Amino acid sequence: MLDKDILKEFQDVVGPEFIDDGDVMTNIYAYNWCTEFVNYMEGKEPIPFSSVPKAVILPSTTEEVQKIVQLCNKYKIKFKAQSTGLGPWNQPSTDNSIILDLRRMNKIVKIDEKNLYAVVESYVSGAQLQAEAMKYGLTVHMPGAGPMASPLASHTSMAGPGFTSPQTGHSARNVLGVEWVLPDGNILRLGSLGQKNNPDWFIGDGPGPSLRGIMRGWVGAKSGIGVFTKVGIKLFPYPTDTKFVMTGHAPLYNFEKPDYIRAYVFDCKSWKGLEKIMLRVEEEEVGFIVSHISGLAVMAIFSYSIEGLMDKMALGVLKNPLLVVMGARTKREFDYKQMVMEDILTEYDLENIVDTKYVPEKVFYAECLRANLGYHGFIATGGFQSAKGQADAAALCLRAEKTNIPLKQKYIKKEAIANDFGEGAWMTSYEGGHFFHMESPTMFNQSDLKSVKGMANYMDESNKQDLIKHLGAPFFIEGDKLHDEWGPHMMNYHNWLRKIKAAFDPNGVADSGFYITAKKEGENK
Amino acid sequence: MTTEHFPEEEYQRMIKMCLRCSVCKWIPQVQIKSQKYASCCPAMDIYDYHAYSGGGRIILALAYEMGRVKPSEDLLNIVYRCTECGNCAIACKYMNTLEPLEIIMRFREKLVKDGYGPMPQQKAYTEAMKKVNNPYNEPHEKRVDWLPSDIKVDPDAKLLYYVGCTSSYRRKEMAIAAARIMNAAGVPFNILKDDEFCCGSPVYRTGDVESFKVQLNKNLDVMESKGIETIIFSCAGCYDTFKVDYPLYREYNFEVLHTVEFFEQLIEEGKLKFTTEVPITVTYHDPCHLGRTAEQYEEWAGDELKLMPLVSINIPPKPKNIGARGVYDAPRNILNKIPGLKLVEMERIMEYSYCCGAGAGVKSAFPDMAIRASKNRIEEAEDSGANILVSACPFCSTNLQDGIKESGSKLKYYDISELILMALGLEPEKLKQATAGGS
Predict the structure, then answer these.
(1) Were B283 and a residue from A32, B92, B382, B384 both cysteine, which residue would form a disulfide, CB within 3.0 to 4.6 Å?
(2) Which is nearest to B104 in space by CA: B37, B180, B32, B14?
(3) How far apart are the CA of B303 and the nearest CA of chain A, in angstroms?
(4) Can you give the CATH number for the domain in which B220 is found?
């Protein structure tokens, strides 16, 4: 709870109904998915509750956010901002913290269809923005977490892959102008938004040096470097026509397939073949989804229940599967893309199982377009989380995947994680194959203590393996402990990160549990 | 079927499984057509805090079980500011296997058992129900005051029209319309008059299961003693309670139909013939209790097969209520058969229809919340291009009409049975009013 006088000051900012420091509300906000194994990894009790915030506050404007942050500085209270709120990164790391739930900041400020960008506030979801952009024949880089997640959070503060990354890239590459409440309470407007004359959102860099790297770097600061209240983000042509007609009932809606959409799933038969074919498909720029997933994941993306998943065992035998979904706006474009794919299939002697060996439910295509495929990962055990998270060349991503298999199998044998033969993986390209992302989704049971502990140990060992085998940095290297472990092996980046933190957050009020604190170099050694 | 449809161990397991993903705040992701009408949860729209979402309530249930929070006014306000519309459950169960609505209902039941729930206003109507058989605290002997003398009731008929408290005391036009339609079709029907008691839905949904069971037994005793073969309901809430909830506690041997299902049959059989043009543009509001929550629990007596560590399947698969078996086609088929009538749809319909805002004790304990939710729905109805809002539930009717009044909307509201009467040529004055100001 907050001291009464301090509470009053916060109430004066947002109104008494939009701050709650009671036990009930603060405990609800202390919960999140995967917090149990994060707690265990940090040597705490493996329960799904983090530190309990002192209060939860719901600002509605940038000015209110600014005043809240100023009060946090005044009273040395940390703050943690969250939007749609999926995952432990939204949790405070100390009980001297308040949560800013940005739920009321949910406006689509504008859609500039001519210049292909939209400006959104924090709580606009991916599906909401896409639905509105579709009215102009456009789409957006959808968060990898799913269409219910916030593009602003994804673009400014989190890792950035998504199912449509071959077309729409990485979150960091989609950020344009940004309105940013710094940890000291100042408002910084990045890129063209910072211009004196005619400020607008169309570019994120300059005038002067770009701050995009400082703002979010590769995986974002998870609110550890301030609060992002508005962001300009790129829009892209929607891959197909935008009719999006749905009849019937959940979950197997009858989706009227757009005129020009087609899915391919084929077995590349070997790791080398997979690399070659994936690069080739990307080079041709025919798919808006180009994802390598495991055989089990192929079963999952076509399923809507665990029983349905197990019915598709025949698909699970695919050794090195690749999913390609293409869309087109004209028949000419569609014919061309299909011909390209036919050439590739012939050249590499591949067999497309879609519509030959397996006919997907119609709603599958709607899920591809809405970027809802990731949610199928929860079907088997109700919980999963990914290890790895490399962003690199295809070869390194595949090496990381291969080397992870024996490790995963070790934990499968221990019955800590579910059996995906150790192969569970998702790999996508960015921007037509210029670089790639790989993560290793792992199914566990968050309500089973043995599974939680096993998952935590597996994640820890997977991180260490990446370090020892030079497989690049996983995306969940967060917090002082892991940065201190990894920094010395990676040109001491952590020291620079600390300098940034110190410069931007002199009072250390932006909760850095999933970022880095400004403690002096070597302090942790 | 027994209360074991949702065993305590399932409750205890599920409250630990929320992903906190926020899916429960929106209609199914693939159904979102605009930002404005993406939301599925009235409580979230009004109170904003995550606590008010389906997931937030699951977390609260867990925090309560773990002893992290104690019963308090704050806790009760969160638990009871929910219409139990079940939209969060549809969104969640699109892919997941959690049961947010079952968890919310069980949590309330626990709070009542522990001596904390329901809310004071709900306790008051529970007492009224016990005393005078209706939650409105109206005299029991006035229950049939709605019945005009020219309506024929057949005391020997095996078809029973269960009027319900709201139609008997508050929305008499619905009771009258239903009865007139049956007279027009030449279908003999009976009503229970003094022997009709509250179905118990208002208390069941606040967690007072013991008081509910008393009502259930009173009603079933009467119906069984009269050898009833079919009961029809114009109230979606009563219908849902009889169809879905009663069998969890006591089996019965009669058929249960909502008037829209029954009237659709009469139209199909040619017993009701529409003779009059009704040139209006309407949009139809799916009541939660006639739609997504009106799915009966299916018996499941299979086995759980552990395929591998952490992964089990049910053989045969356990039936999952996901709203697909609600009554959606019958009202639409009726409306589409009315000559001259144009039906336009809102964005949120059928299993992901937005709630009117009244249910599960909210209208009584949190009238402001009920009105604000209703106003959201009214705006959506206006945006559909319709000038008439139609539904099939007296409780939705009351709250939506309150919302129309409060928002100053020009929308008119009719129950579907009133439109049927107009099409039968039996309500020329009402038809004139409905068409006044253009269609």
Answers:
(1) B384
(2) B14
(3) 13
(4) 3.40.50
Beta-carbon separation of A131 and B17 below 8 A: no
Q: Distance (Å, rounded) from C-alpha B167 to C-alpha A270?
A: 69
Beta-carbon separation of B74 and A372 below 8 A: no
Q: Is A524's pLDDT higher than 70?
A: no
Q: Is residue B353 part of a domain?
A: no
Task: Give per-residue pLDDT as tens, B2-57.
Answer: 457 899 999 999 999 999 999 999 999 999 999 999 999 999 999 999 999 999 99
Are the C-beta atoms of A130 and A142 separated by less than 8 Å? yes
Instruction: Using an 8 Å CB-CB cutoff, list chain A residues near B62.
Output: 31, 48
Name the CATH superfamily for A246-468: FAD-linked oxidases, C-terminal domain (3.40.462.10)
Which residues from B are below 8 Å from A87, CB to CB?
A: 20
Asked if B63's CB is within 8 angstroms of A85's CB, the reply is no
pLDDT for res B1: 45
Q: Is A107 exposed, middle or buried (0-12, 13-18, 19+ CB in 10 A)?
A: middle
Chain B nearest CA to A498, separation (Å) = 31
B68 → closest Cβ in A27, A418, A443: A27
Residue A97 contacts by C-beta under 8 Å, 6 or more apart in sequence? A51, A53, A54, A77, A78, A79, A80, A511
In a domain, B130, yes or no: yes
Chain B interface, best mutation among A14, A31, A35, by max B CB count within 10 A:
A31
Mean pLDDT along residues A405-420: 95
**For residue B170, what pLDDT is reported?**
97
Could you tell me where the beta strands, DSSP code E, fall in A269-404?
289-293, 321-327, 384-392
Q: How many domains does chain B have?
A: 1
Q: How far apart are the first and last CA of chain A?
A: 34
List A residues 397-426 in contact with B (Cβ-Cβ < 8 A). 412, 415-419
Round to whole Å and give the CA distance between B428 and A246.
38
Q: What is the ipTM of this complex?
A: 0.96
Length of chain A: 525
Nearest CA in chain B to A49: B63
Q: Which fold has domain A105-237?
A: 3.30.465
Residue of A nearest to B54 (CA): A28
The reply to whether domains A4-103 and A105-237 share a CATH topology is no
Asked if residue B166 is part of any domain, the answer here is yes
- A4-103 maps to CATH 3.30.43.10: yes
Residue B81 domain flag: no
Range of the domain at B228: 120-268
User: pLDDT per residue over B251-275, tens digit each?
Assistant: 999 999 999 999 999 999 999 999 9
Give B235 to chain A, closest Cα distance, Å: 24
- Encoding tokens for residue B187? 């279908």
pLDDT one-digit tens code per residue, B86-134: 999 999 999 888 999 999 999 999 999 999 999 999 999 999 999 999 9
Determine the distance in angstroms separating the CA of A462 from the nearest CA of chain B, rounded to an integer.
Answer: 21
Looking at the complex, report in whole angstroms how far the Cα of residue B75 sits from the nearest Cα belonging to chain A: 6
Are the C-beta atoms of residues B159 and B233 closer than 8 Å to each other?
no
CA distance A228 to A180: 5
**A contacts of B34 (beta carbons < 8 Å):** 128, 131-132
pLDDT-based confidence at residue B438 (cuts at 50, 70, 90): low
Closest chain A residue to B68 measured between Cα atoms?
A27
Q: What is the residue extent of each domain of chain A?
A: 4-103, 105-237, 246-468, 479-525
Which residues of A, range 214-253, sit inside 8 Å of B by Cβ? Answer: 244, 246, 249-251, 253
Tens digit of pLDDT for each residue in A9-38?
Answer: 999 999 999 999 999 999 999 999 999 999
Pairing mode, if any, of strands A138-140 and A227-237?
Answer: antiparallel
CB atoms A149 and B26 under 8 Å: no
